[in-house]
Write a structure and sequence with these properties.
The chain has 700 residues and is of the alpha/beta class. It has 25 helices and 23 strands. Helix 18 packs across helix 22. The longest helix is centred in the C-terminal third of the chain and has 20 residues. Keywords: ATP-binding, Helicase, Hydrolase, Nucleotide-binding.
């Protein structure tokens, strides 16, 4: 078995042990040292050398050189996300115009990690170190060597470069999150590696089952000559475990189950501040709504309790947060202050917050959930797994011994909580996933090699919807030109179809604006204590037709104000979100122009706009139940009970027929982004689909 190393580098003193279960486990020698060298390095360099991953630098480079796939398991905070790409660059993997690609499941993590690495390398972000997320490219093709990007963006790059020939190494970070894009990417990278055995993969994770990932990537090259070549790496994956620098964390459980985790979290924060020594507090909640409610509750309590509690600095953390607000979270805490960060599970592994000593774990997160029989996909507040609970507790032991306060009982944790979460692939609508695979030329979707197979029912449902939208033909191939054009637009296929249909209805100008609004998180900003003013501001833009037309009114007002941030503030609108809408619209305009579609305006003919929306969203049609006292609708296809979300302008208006863009589930299924329609438009838009549904009641 030939062993080689980068010229001029010292081979690490290691023990490589062949594992019976496949893969090679690296055991570091006891002489490895993480001490700082005495050559007057800047403080950033000293910080880098203090990270736990530093003592594994030579080992990582050795394994990447020797093996096609290296699986790195290491706790959050070990430095793997920021340091491994730099080690690869220093070892020459970006020489000759090649790229080192590093993927993250979340956009916020991409931006944060890229920004930190640029700072450490001492370059301006967007030059040698850059990032690409949907609708935002901060790279320089001739200059960028380390490129951070979301899993989804890398999949889209494959449409132009199926073998990712620009990349010498691809690091898939936070693989344990098992997002739908991560699982797709892993399956695609495995296919690429068969054709490009020289491509190195690093699968990095905090908790991943290294053995199962190792057996997934244990590829036997098709050509037996490839396997014996000295120029190619071993197809057998290597596994490297990187120790963290965690301190002990004392776990506290509630004695009785709590009925309101939000109030319990607020009470726990106040108790910690009263009884515990200094140290920041990290609270895990489920989403933006929860977090904003908790911020409001905490601020009210602080005002009520008095001076001692004014030392608390309350900061929200979720993916739609503007950059300026994020900076406060990562900045060191001022003397005499205590930060309270209220976060989604993004702080579980994707981001490291220094200074946290106390963690409050609600025991819940917001998870995507899909039922292919009822065809309802929704965001559901659901219990977390033991793996997530351990990750959350670990955030408290970063700077010194910490404490984790779990808002559930020890008995529940030991006997009822699931060991691991369910991969998103097995609980999601697969429409976007199927069209991307089809666009990449993968026709046998049911036979695709997944790390975790999706349900055949969900796959068949996705094929049915894409066929009904005219995106796939009877042979399940992309239609020309619609299917290929939809695949090229980086949006949900239903929104993409809406954009293409707008051309025939003469309202592409309006629909591009609506599609841009649907691509950002809420543009409205709810402010505590001014509900009356907020409702009045909302009414200024409200359109009788529904939310989509309301977006057009907001966009018009924003333009007429000269894109003023002051105007946004007065109207309770998120200035950064509206700037993003303008930017996304410009990019979508370039894409549709490349299809030869000219921009047309319908001059306030909102019937044309609504018909274009239906062309993409007719599967989401609902009708109001007769004699319904509480605004209950039923979906036409599967008779599921749904309700208009309180944030919609149609809340309590309750038109007889509507289509919605998405569902969110709490105590009920709520429709978001709703528009009123005429039922006859459905049979106009999709006679085949609705006739098919009527004639086959057994399929309901």
């Amino acid at each position: 078995m030939s062993r080689f190393w980068k010229p001029g580098s010292e081979k690490p003193s290691t023990l490589l042990v062949d594992e019976e279960e496949g893969g090679v486990v690296f055991l570091p020698s006891s002489t490895s040292s993480a001490s700082s060298s005495g050559f007057g390095y800047a403080s950033l360099e000293r910080q880098r050398q203090r990270l736990p991953v530093y003592k594994y630098r030579k080992a990582i480079l050795y394994l990447v050189e020797r093996h096609a796939t290296t699986i790195v398991v290491g706790e959050t905070g070990s430095g793997k996300s920021t340091q491994i790409p730099q080690y690869l660059k220093e070892a020459g993997w970006a020489d000759g115009g090649r790229l080192i690609g590093c993927t993250q499941p979340r956009r916020l993590a991409v931006q944060t990690v890229a920004s930190r690495v640029a700072e450490e390398v001492g370059v301006k972000l967007g030059e040698e170190v850059g990032y690409t997320i949907r609708f935002e490219d901060q790279t320089n093709p001739g200059m960028t060597m380390i490129k951070f990007l979301t899993d989804g963006v890398l999949i889209r790059e494959m449409m132009e470069d199926p073998l990712l020939t620009k990349y010498s190494v691809i690091m898939v970070d936070e693989a344990h999150e098992r997002s739908i894009s991560t699982d797709m990417l892993l399956g695609l990278l495995k296919k690429i590696q068969r054709r490009r055995p020289e491509l190195r993969l690093i699968i990095s994770s905090a908790t991943i089952e290294a053995r199962s990932m190792s057996s997934f990537f244990n590829i036997r090259w098709k050509n037996s000559l490839l396997g014996s070549s000295d120029d190619l790496p071993s197809p057998e994956p290597a596994i490297l475990s990187v120790e963290g620098k965690g301190y002990t964390v004392e776990i506290h459980y509630v004695e009785e189950p709590v009925s309101d985790y939000l109030q319990a979290a607020v009470n726990t924060v106040l108790l910690i501040h009263e009884k515990e020594p200094p140290g920041d507090i990290l609270v895990f909640l489920t989403g933006q709504d929860d977090i904003e409610a908790a911020v409001k509750l905490l601020n009210e309590e602080i005002q009520h309790l008095g001076r001692h509690y004014l030392d608390l600095l309350i900061l929200p953390l979720y993916s739609g947060l503007p950059w300026g607000d994020q900076d406060l979270i990562f900045a060191p805490t001022s003397k005499g202050k205590r930060k309270v960060v209220l976060s989604t599970n993004i702080a579980e592994t994707s981001l490291t917050l220094e200074g946290v000593v106390y963690v409050v774990d609600s025991g819940f997160s917001k998870q995507k959930c899909y039922n292919p029989i009822s065809d309802i996909e929704s965001l559901v507040v659901a219990p977390i797994s033991k793996a997530s609970a351990r990750q959350r507790a670990g955030r408290a032991g970063r700077v010194r011994p910490g404490k984790c306060f779990r808002l559930y009982t020890e008995e529940y944790y030991l006997n009822e909580m699931q060991s691991d979460g369910i991969p998103e692939m097995q609980r999601s609508n697969l429409v976007s996933c199927v069209i991307q695979l089809k666009a990449l030329g993968i026709d046998n979707i049911l036979g695709f090699d997944w790390p975790a197979s999706p349900s055949p029912e969900a796959m068949i449902r996705a094929l049915e919807v894409l066929f009904s939208l005219g995106i796939l033909d009877e042979d399940a191939k992309l239609t020309v030109p619609t299917g290929f054009q939809v695949a090229e637009i980086p949006l949900d296929p239903m929104i993409s179809k809406m954009i293409l249909s707008a051309n025939e209805f003469g309202c592409s100008d309006e629909i591009l604006t609506i599609a841009s609004f649907l691509s950002v998180q809420s543009v409205c900003v709810s402010v505590r204590g001014v509900k009356k003013e907020f409702d009045e501001a909302k009414l200024r833009f409200a359109a009788a037709e529904g939310d989509h037309v309301t977006f057009l009114n907001i966009y018009k007002g924003f333009h007429q104000s000269g894109k003023s941030s002051q105007w946004c503030y007065k109207n309770f609108l998120n200035y950064q979100a509206l700037k993003k809408v303008v930017d996304i619209r410009g990019q979508l305009l370039r894409i549709v122009k490349s299809f030869g579609i000219q921009l047309k305006s319908c001059d306030r003919d909102m019937q044309a706009v609504r018909k274009a929306i239906i062309a993409g969203s007719f599967t989401n049609a609902c009708h109001l139940e007769e004699y319904s006292q509480n605004g209950m609708y039923k979906t036409i296809r599967t008779s599921q009970e749904v309700y208009i979300h309180p944030s919609s302008v149609l809340f309590r208006v309750n038109p007889k027929w509507v289509v919605y863009q998405s569902l969110v589930s709490t105590d009920k299924h709520y429709m978001r982004n709703v528009i009123a329609i005429e039922p006859s438009w459905l049979t106009e838009a999709a006679p085949h689909f609705y006739q098919f549904r009527t004639l086959n009641p057994a399929l309901h």
